[in-house]
Design a protein that fits this description.
This protein has 517 residues and is mainly alpha-helical.
Length: 517
């Protein structure tokens, strides 16, 4: 071991002198000399890396004070970068100099300088005259050389990582965790280079068997930031791995979505859908663990805003996108519905998950009654002794807003007596915290409004005052009261369906006879 150390020190001095000569002259003789020594220099680099990886960055600088100069000269030599695996080994050596937790400005500057060298190594933007001379003899144009070199190296590393992932517990053929960690460190300043995408993807998908995460936190943060800023495009499978391995990235993506929704002046449902699909959240949520985190964040937002309609609308659009992605990914569910909605009845989730528009119109009322029966049992049955039952049932129900729309349409379009089950369903949708007596009172008020709306349908003339009369059937003056919200929902639907409904709505707004919530 001592002899190896002496030999390495001697070799170090020899190659330092060689690099200085190569660096100072660009003659044909120095180029020939460089090419003659490339294999030997690569072997020296390999030995240097084996020594450096056993030391921390401070020890490396103490033992080899000029190591930065040596590696920098090698990094700027196009012949060295072009030879075999020298480029890759140079990256390993540079990573050994990075201080994981810099304690002072000097160490921070050193890290920054090393990142600059790493960026240069894999950069496709420099085509020096030496490269032109070297590649011209091989029949390549300079502009074709560096991109090809970068692409080949990235594909080689990505292939090695995939093999590492497949080898599982075969430790003899697995890449050392330290190398994987170093790779993730190297990628941080290079993530936005398009040719590095396969390596980033391979790192995210490659799972080791170590008890702790081996990829650098900075790597996860940099990848997620690049995804949010649309500077990198990765397949959904890689994004899923990112969010499963680094929860803060998923949380930041959710916050980014909320920021976009809040900062946008007008958020129609189509615009919300574009934001959600663009974020990849609905596609990634096909994995139950991600869905549960996203759903929990939505739950907190709902509670913090006292059930704001904007939050409910976002949840409903997200659920539509999620169901669409789920159907696209697999015709049969890979996971049971219980894994997505653990706090509610699987039978209720199964019914709600159906597309209301996919059900024959003749079965609408029957399906709504079935949903109402399941919800009512979960809400009013006290035998389970669960205080979270009503809220969890309502939280599941509001995910699927199409059923509330269908219930309102059924009440307005049917000439028969309003079904109690459908009235209860809408009363629960708007007043989940109401007790039995309050909900019954809401149903009575809504029934009276429906009676006036049916009378208006039979009338040959409709006016804004008729609408005012119908709206006045509610006894609550608070516009946020469940009865008022439900009545307003029915009135808006009535205006959409009734002849001259749009004209009446315009008159009503002009006269301020119906005030928006």
């Amino acid at each position: 071991m001592a002899q190896d150390s002496v030999d390495l020190s001697c070799d170090y001095q020899f190659w330092m002198q060689k690099l200085s000569v190569w660096d100072q002259a660009s003659t044909l003789e120095t180029q020939q000399d460089t090419c003659l020594h490339l294999a030997q220099f690569q072997e020296f680099l390999r030995k240097m890396y084996e020594a450096l990886k056993e030391m921390d960055s401070n020890t490396v600088i103490e033992r080899f004070p000029t190591i930065g100069q040596l590696l920098a000269k090698a990094c700027w030599n196009p012949f060295i970068l072009a030879y075999d695996e020298s480029q890759k080994i140079l990256i390993w050596c540079l990573c050994c100099l990075i201080n994981k937790e810099p304690q002072n400005s000097g160490q921070s500057k050193l890290n920054y300088w090393i990142q600059g060298l790493l960026s240069h190594i894999l950069s496709a933007l420099r085509f020096d005259k030496e490269v032109a001379l070297f590649t011209q003899g091989l029949g390549y144009a300079p502009i074709d050389y560096y991109p090809g070199l970068l692409k080949n190296m990235v594909l080689s590393l990505a292939s090695e990582l995939r093999e590492n992932h497949l080898n599982g517990f075969n430790t003899q053929r697995r890449m050392a965790p330290e190398r994987v960690a170093s790779l993730s460190r190297v990628c941080v300043p290079l993530i936005t280079l398009p040719d590095v995408d396969p390596l980033v993807e391979a790192l995210l998908i490659c799972h080791g068997h170590e008890p702790q995460e081996i990829l650098q936190q900075e790597f996860f943060e940099a990848v997620n930031e690049a995804i949010l800023l649309k500077k990198i495009s990765l397949p959904v499978s890689a994004v899923v791995c990112l969010w499963l391995r680094h929860l803060p990235s998923l949380e930041k993506t959710m916050l980014h979505l909320f920021e976009k929704l809040i900062s946008s002046e007008r958020n129609c449902l189509r615009r919300i859908e574009c934001f959600i699909k663009d974020s990849l959240l609905s596609q990634a949520a096909c994995h139950p663990a991600i869905f549960r985190v996203v759903d929990e964040i939505f739950r907190c937002a709902l509670l913090e805003t006292d059930g704001a309609p904007e939050v409910i609308a976002t949840i409903q659009v997200f659920t539509q996108c999620f169901v669409e992605a789920l159907e696209k990914e697999n015709k049969q569910l890979q996971f049971t519905l219980k894994t997505y909605f653990p706090y509610t009845s699987p039978s209720l989730a199964t019914v709600l998950l159906q597309d209301p528009q996919g059900i024959p119109q003749g079965q609408w009322l029957q399906t709504l009654k079935h949903i109402s029966e399941l919800l009512r049992k979960a809400v009013e049955d006290q035998t389970h002794g669960s205080c979270r039952g009503p809220f969890e049932s309502w939280f599941l129900f509001i995910h699927f807003g199409g059923w509330a729309e269908m219930a309102a349409e059924q009440l307005l379009m049917s000439a028969a007596e309003p079904p109690t089950a459908v009235l209860w369903l809408l009363a629960f949708y708007y007043g989940p915290c109401d007790g039995r007596q309050q909900r019954t009172q809401t149903m009575v008020q809504v029934k009276a409004v429906l009676g006036h709306l049916r009378a208006m349908c039979r009338s040959t003339t409709l006016s804004a005052k008729d609408l005012q009369t119908a709206a006045g059937q509610g006894t609550d003056t608070d516009p946020r009261a469940p009865a008022q919200q439900l009545i307003r929902h029915l009135l808006l639907n009535f205006l959409l369906w009734a002849p001259r409904g749009h004209m009446i709505a315009r008159d009503a707004i002009t006269l301020k006879e119906i005030r928006p919530q």
